[in-house]
Amino acid sequence: MYAQMVKSTGQGVKSLDEMDPQERAFQERINRDEKIEPKDWMPAAYRKNLIRQIGQHAHSEIVGQLPEGNWITRAPTLERKAILLAKVQDEAGHGLYLYCAAETLGVSRDELTEDLLSGKMKYSSIFNYPTLTWADMGAVGWLVDGAAIMNQVPLQRTSFGPYARAMVRICKEESFHQRQGYDIMMKMANGSDAQKRMAQDALNRFWYPSLMMFGPSDKDSVHSAQSMAWKIKMNTNDELRQKFVDQTVPQAEYLGLTVPDPDIAWNEEKGGYDFTEPDWSEFFDVIKGNGPCNVERLAARNKAWDEGRWVRDALLAHGEKRRAARVVAAE
Ligand code: BYC
Fold first, then answer.
1. Which of 50, 63, 197, 262 is the most exposed place for a label (fewest CB within 10 A)?
2. What DSSP string runs through 20-49?
3. pTM (two decimals)
């Protein structure tokens, strides 16, 4: 079905017949669901697109620690604090697996980091929204990690081996994250009136930004056609957004909360909910750098990078010393 490739004009997708023999053999491997490994031949555009997607994904995990890290010192109980700390550490781990996967494509982690810190590379729009109350920790786990799983489970079958394998462990951990978020929401939604109001307020603020995580609507998605032909992406943005809404609306009902969309309604014919699209002008504004927290997030990552310089320098000096000692010992 996707035996095609984007034409050099960037318009449309090349058919197998239009490809040169090497490209065609590559596409046929993908069509047979064979994994592409780092040393295999691949089109330059496949490599570039993967570096872009995996790099953005890694950056999202790293920047994604900030909104939740904000609440570690203020978690309401020691147990909640320990769980949140573990969750935030997991996100750092996800970032590292993904940077490693990207490195197999010939880009260094330092280069990717520099592109994040300069604002050249993107990270998920969702992390440019603030976390104002403890209920936001519930909403982030439930909705943000819920959306992340919806997007990442299919990526376990993505065509690039190191990316697909990194996804397996990430998805297991994201499931735990999603449940811990829902557990916080259960407590809040079944708590005092003030707690219920906080839970509803968190859902109100995180609903549309969560829908935006899946990317622009299919008609505005620049990369989908080629990425799906190459199985870098397994579903379109709108397909996954629909699945997320279908999964999440009953979960909100179970909590006794109201999804902030008066037009949400079950559509028997399509077997899914009709819902209001997010405000796409807000989405494009956020990814251009104008969201509520973009400046703060990049400033925090730049500060961490600058303040960690002595650790990197010390590790390099230590490595150099050990190398020199090995050379002397070998002489
Ligand atoms: N935010 O052609 P399109 C997590 C950009 S972290 C920002 O549809 P594509 C977690 C897109 O990059 C979860 N930018 O793009 C961590 C492109 O711009 P460029 C992160 C977005 O790549 C901590 C342009 O819009 N998950 O779970 O085909 C705590 C056109 O879009 C966004 C991943 O990264 C966005 N939401 O599809 C808790 C998953 N959406 O690059 C949780 C892997 C689009 O041309 N990534 N853009 O300048 C993907 O699956 C795909 O990259 C996307 C976008 C579905 C996100």
1. 262
2. -HHHHHHHHHHHTTPPB-TTS---HHHHHH
3. 0.94
